[in-house]
Amino acid sequence: NAGVMQNPRHLVRRRGQEARLRCSPMKGHSHVYWYRQLPEEGLKFMVYLQKENIIDESGMPKERFSAEFPKEGPSILRIQQVVRGDSAAYFCASTPGEGDEQFFGPGTRLTVL
Amino acid sequence: GNSVTQMEGPVTLSEEAFLTINCTYTATGYPSLFWYVQYPGEGLQLLLKATKADDKGSNKGFEATYRKETTSFHLEKGSVQVSDSAVYFCALSDLYNQGGKLIFGQGTELSVKP
Q1: Looking at chain A, which residue has its C-alpha nearest residue B98?
Q2: Integer Cα distance of A51 and A81 in angstroms
């Protein structure tokens, strides 16, 4: 049973470009959480999604950030018009149900030049 | 709101030394508590957890006890190995009030020297 997959593992963007981060949950998992790890900091919750629904987006910046988890395919975290402050490691975690153990992917390390 | 505070690192120990990483929390409900470990370049792995007061989580020689009276969940290991070098995160989850999202401490880097 493959673990949580994230791609790309490393992403470089110039200021103003768009970044798309993908997360494929473990088989049988229908819940996805996204977290951001800024340099020298712990992980901060961003958004919690179930298939086709955003359940909690209280940690998402109000502008430029969006997330989706369609019925088919991976969850996508999209950052429009990236700025240097968006440089961070972005992790997703999946669970089979709310409150169950979260299994983390290896992360996508975004660098904004 | 809920929060987690853990001791600052980096912590440097010699092999076979005793390890303690302090973690305290603030929560309005009855959270579950976790320790995660992150090896360089990798995602987080669950190390151990405790879901109610006085529970002790344990795994791979690591232990932590959920202390409601002191709002603490300190991580301990009696004899560390070089392979334990990693960043350790304390976290809480308050399912009924906050839907299961994890709230993390800032992480403590552990370096074990041979």
Answers
A1: A56
A2: 26
Mutate to test the interface with A, among B32, B39, B44 (most CBs of A within 10 A): B44
pLDDT at B40: 86
For residue range B25-84, what is the model confidence (pLDDT) as tens digits? 999 888 999 999 999 888 899 999 999 999 999 999 999 999 999 999 999 999 999 999
Task: Put residue B40 in one of left, alpha, beta given phi > 0 → left and psi -120 to 50 → alpha.
Answer: beta
Count of A-B CB contacts under 8 Å? 58
A residues 32..91 contacting B (CB < 8 A):
33, 35, 41-45, 48, 55-56, 59, 91
What are the start-end ranges of the E strands in chain B? 3-6, 11-14, 19-21, 23-26, 32-38, 44-50, 56-59, 62-65, 75-77, 86-93, 102-104, 108-113
With beta carbons under 8 A apart, name residues in chain B contacting A55. Answer: 99
Contact between chains at B102 and A41 (C-beta distance less than 8 A): no
Pairing of strands B11-14, B108-113: parallel
pLDDT digits 0-9 by tens, A42-99:
899 999 999 999 999 999 999 999 999 999 999 999 999 999 999 999 999 999 887 7
